[in-house]
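Batch manifest, entry 17 of 40.
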Amino acid sequence: MALGYLNLPYHSVVLPYDDEATPITLTGKKMLPILVHDKGVLNESLDIIQLVDEKNILKTHEIVNSQDYKNFELVLNQIGNPVHSLAMPYWIYTPEFTPQARKYFQAKKESKRGPFKDLVKIQSTFKQELEPLLSEIEKRLAPFYESNTFGIKDIMIAAHLWGLYIVPEYQFSPKIHEYLQRVKVLCQFNYHEDFWRKE
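Output type: structure tokens
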């Protein structure tokens, strides 16, 4: 999303989830995304954005080091758990998962969250958990998060929420949906476009 917003050309390589060797060889740990560039390799999202945003358009450094950033991180962490519990049972059927990678992912995530089939049965619990969190975000849209201009916080919120579009039983409020679609246009972002572009 950041690369799209900054109009920077890039080549995306999608790694199978069970590919441990590539990220460990490149960076010493299994962590994505990874940016391979002319000065080396980097694999922390915010560090990557700061590196490529040479004109500091997104003001990532200032925002990450601001006084209210920890509160914002708390909001993201609170959103993350119910979003993942709702979306993971469906994510594993997206194009990035080979059958082998699907088994790897499912075994790893179910050891922490429980069987995916059980998560689907208690979706209402996760929806109830999300409702006040998204309501609070909605109140802060002006039209972007706590701002009339687009910024790094919008990328971070959208990155957390976008996966919910894959859950058939979940529906965003009209305002959150419009916000995410606005971010999509600004960032020239299309979910799984890496695969759609393949010949």
